[in-house]
Amino acid sequence: NPTMTQNFIHDFIDEDIAQGGQFQGMTVHTRFPPEPNGYLHIGHAKAIFVDFGTAEKYGGLCNLRMDDTNPTKEDVEYVEAIQEDIHWLGYDWGDRFYFASDYFEQMYEYAVELIKKGLAYVCELTPEQFKEYRGDVNTPARSPWRDRPIEESLDLFARMRAGEFPNGKYTLRAKIDLASGNFNMRDPVIYRINHMHHHRQGDKWCIYPMYDYAHPLEDALEGITHSLCTLEFEDHRPLYDWVIANCDVPAKPRQIEFARLGINYTVMSKRKLRQLVEENRVSGWDDPRMPTICGLRRRGYTPRAIRNFSERNGVSKAASTVEFAFLEHCLREDLNLTAQRVMAVLRPVKLTITNYPEGQSETFSVENNPNDPEAGSREITFSRNLYVEAEDFLETPVPKYKRLYPDGPECRLKGAYLIKCTGCAKDENGNVTEIFATYDPESRGGDPADGRKVKGATIHWVDAATAVDAEVRLYDNLFTDADPDAGDKNFLDCLNPNSLEVLPNAKVEAGLAGVEAPASFQFLRQGYFCVDNKDSAPGHLVFNRSVSLKDSFKF
Ligand code: ATP
Ligand code: MG
Ligand code: MG
Description:
The structure is a single chain. The chain is α/β, with parallel strands linked by helices. The protein folds into three domains: 8-258, Rossmann fold; 270-341 and 470-547, CATH 2.40.240.10; 344-459, CATH 2.40.240.10. Helix content is 25%, strand content 24%. The protein is built from twelve helices and 27 strands. It has helices spanning 8-19, 42-57, 76-89, 104-116, 127-133, 150-161, 211-221, 237-246, 270-278, 293-299, 303-313, 324-338, and strands at 29-32, 61-66, 97-99, 120-123, 171-174, 189-193, 207-209, 226-230, 254-258, 261-263, 320-322, 340-342, 344-345, 348-353, 361-367, 377-383, 385-389, 411-413, 418-426, 432-439, 458-459, 461-463, 468-475, 500-508, 520-523, 527-531, 541-547. Strands 12-25-26-27-23-24-13 form a seven-stranded mixed beta sheet, with helices on one face. Bound molecules: adenosine-5'-triphosphate and magnesium ion (2 copies). The site of one magnesium ion has 2 residues, from loops. This is Glutamine--tRNA ligase. GO terms for molecular function: ligase activity. Its EC number is 6.1.1.18.
């Protein structure tokens, strides 16, 4: 049942609370730890939902922590964008905003303590030797430096910090178990030398802690009770627990792993998303085709649609790929309730009502949202010259075509009058430039006075006298392949060349003249559209198709 939500993490926490022990009377405390090296994507939205949502459910706390222990590629631009996106999704960390790099000094001290306890040593295997000495599943690893005297390791570690050695010359390794079946436990490197500028620490450090050592300490120092992370860290949990057990930390967090979110027809790794941006395959991180939070926002996604999507996918250990169509389904569901209905003609052709007096005009009152009685109604104008969709006319109809064609069936202009098509005008190339029709003055509002059956379709239109110009952008999947990451193909080879179609000459109702982002509308018969939050301006409206009306998703 797709509407039943399941979250095994909550079962675990319920157990922890029931058992008492270290979790006796605790406030559930989680954290969301993004690395500020890119923009957040819909996969992160799942993690945000898991981290902040769990805290919310238990009346607990959730920290926002920039995981900036790796000095490369990190940037304030990302730090700010991450905060904006989380707030936009509707979550808040209060004053619990941290940088992992702020704990470098404490991490260093814990490492010194480990050395003093005989639980860490300075190793000088080169990366090549490291591979050679690593052993295989059945053979224990070796390190000739494992029994280096404590005093010597302490001295070398201090000098590593002082900058005496080049990159790669020494590492600090935890002394755990060289024969462990879990390679992460075979004396993992916990510090490496890296002479690099850090976006926050400047040049203060030239040794940096490894993730597996740093992360449990960050969690413990912040008093995290449940450290929720993705499945690739499952094999690292013994090391996480080892660090917590062997450093004298103020809290004992529990790591729980859940499956990453994957979505078809897109890629989700920041590295690949960055490549799309840097190679100008898309217009930026916020290109409406991107699975980033800022891209989805610009596409017209609502926080509620994304939260519903995350919730309804559930949280489990089973990796699965969710259909993009389900994300669209969640958006459609939300906008169906909230979006104002308007008329917009995307590929306009002029329609002239030949028996409607020239210079005359009138207004119709039309409802804003049939699903929301509170939404009220608005006035739209009508006159002799209108715009209709080019595809709503065919000079020679195909079988079952029920729209406009010469001497074709009576059609309804939505909310206005019944008309019959009488012919068209064409240019020298044979393109239709104008459609002619007559209207029934007795059908005001769209229904015939004598109750006769209307055989043609209902067609949307806008009044040429008051219409506003707009640019409309239609989007399709960014990739033609459902799994661009699969096999050994290059994901760039399956980019969809038709993922963006720009319609520069659309005509929209006069009432839309002043709209601004983040407004969303249902363009009748066309789909849901939002005002582009970057390129739209008064005098040059730009709309993005968020999602079409037709739901292809099947439960
Ligand atoms: P990427 O491979 O996209 O760079 P990452 O895990 O390196 O992802 P982080 O910035 O470290 O990116 O992610 C912050 C948090 O979000 C982590 O706890 C991570 O596990 C989680 N996360 C990242 N991608 C997903 C995903 N697709 N589904 C669920 N959680 C995710
Ligand atoms: Mg990460
Ligand atoms: Mg990453």
